[in-house]
Structure formats: structure tokens, C-alpha cells
Amino acid sequence: MESLYVLLVIVIGVIVVLFKGIRIVSQGEEWVIERLGKYSRNLNPGLNLIIPFIDSVREKVSTRDIILDIPQQEVITSDNAVILANAIAFIRVTKPQDAIYGVEDFREAIRSLIMTTLRSIIGEMKLDEALSNRESIKARLKSEIIDDLADWGVTVKSVEIQDITPSKSMQHAMEQQAAAERERRAVETRAEGTKNAMVLEAQGKLEAAMKEADAQIALARASATAIADITQATEGKEFPAMFLLGDRYIDSLNQLSKSENSKFVVYPADLQATVKGMMGSIFNKG
Length: 286
Fold this sequence. Notes:
The protein is of the alpha+beta class and 286 residues long. 59% of the residues lie in helices and 23% in strands. Strand 6 (66-76) and strand 7 (82-93) form a beta hairpin. The longest helix has 67 residues, at 168-234.
């Protein structure tokens, strides 16, 4: 009976030892093993054996890509503009023992490192430069954190800048600035249009005056030529010339009567004597 108890104890002991000594690691994981509180080795995916009660599992680390969300934060640019920026990082643990023993919490450490580095990079840029150079910020961010993460046994797969936007107060200021700029351009456009219209109007009046003067000169020359021709044709007889001058005199009075400023038009009582008086000197010369 005693031997049966002993055998039962041995069987239970063997079961406990096997339970403590056999470890099955899933694909995509590595387990960090400590022996008497000191790092010993890593267990790879599959069946593994450890020394019961001496070896212990310190940490189960995922070797798959890890997605780290970098929260949105306020960043001040070199021209004192406040913008909001956040990012997302894809990392992979390549040395689990470094990730466990190199830093207290490697996920939180990487998140803090990316946030501070992102603030530093954008802080050296002006607002317009920061808003339009997302790819360069991303490349520089990755290059500046890759060495630090390597010390922690982590590889950076990619860092993506999700959003870079001005803060609400900055957006309001930019909207006001844009509205003021549009109003300034509208005022300049209206002033330019008014100036061009005035110039065109003045040019039109000048050209009209010049043409009117040319017309008056041409008319005077035509009249002088006509009078000279008539005088020559009539050999000094005054009737045809008087008819021609009287006709033009009456036409001039008719045009004068159509003027808005003329209220009365007075015709001479003796039109023939008036014309003769006007042409007296001409006929006398003839």
C-alpha cells in the first residue's frame, strides 16, 4: 500500500515537472526566459523545454508588426504658428531581450520619442513649409529615431504623418488674412478699372476734339475754295456768291437753334444786306 502511494507521488511529480518544463510557443511570438532571475535565452515558436522551477518565462513578446498610434499634439513652428500634428508608426521587435531589458516600456518610450522628435522637426520650419512638406518630415522623423529604436531591439518599418493642420485659432486668423487679401485685390482691381475708364474717356475726348478741329479746318478751307471758285466763275458778280453764303449762313443759324443752350435765334431783318456786308470786302477786292 505504501509503495502505491509512493508511485502515485512520483507520477504526480513527473506530471508537474513535465507541465513546468514543456513550453509551446505560438507562431509570431518569442518568449524571454530567465534562469534564477537572469536572462537566459529566447524561446522560438514550437515545442521548447525549460528547467522547471529554475527557468521562468519573463515576457511573451510579439514579433509581428506593431501599430503605434501617436496622439495629436500642438506644435509651434519657427514663425510662432500653432499647428496640430499626429502620426502612426509601424514597428517590429527584432531582439525581445533588448526591448524588455533596454527600457521600462518600449511602446510608451517609442511613442514619446516620436512625439518629441516630431515637435523638434516642425519647430524648425515655418507654417507654410510644415504644411507642404509632409513627406520630408516623415523621412527625417524616421531617420532620427531609427538608431534609438535599434538600441531597444526594435526596427522601424514606417512612420506616417496622419494630419498636419493649423489649430482653430490659427485657422480663424488665416481665414481673416485670406479675406483681407481678397478685399485688397478687389479694391485694386476696381481702382485699376476706374483709372483705365478715365484714361479711355480722356483719350476719346482728345481724339474727338482733334477730329473736330480737323473738320473745322477742312470746312473752312472748303468754304474759302468754294468762294474763290464762285468769285472767279461769276467774274465779280455778287448774286451767286450771296446765294451760297446766305445758304450757309442760314444753315449755321439752323444748327445754332438746335443747341440745348440756345433759347432764341434772331434772324437779321435784311438778310441780303447782311450777306453783302460780310462779302463786301471780297467783292471789292475782285
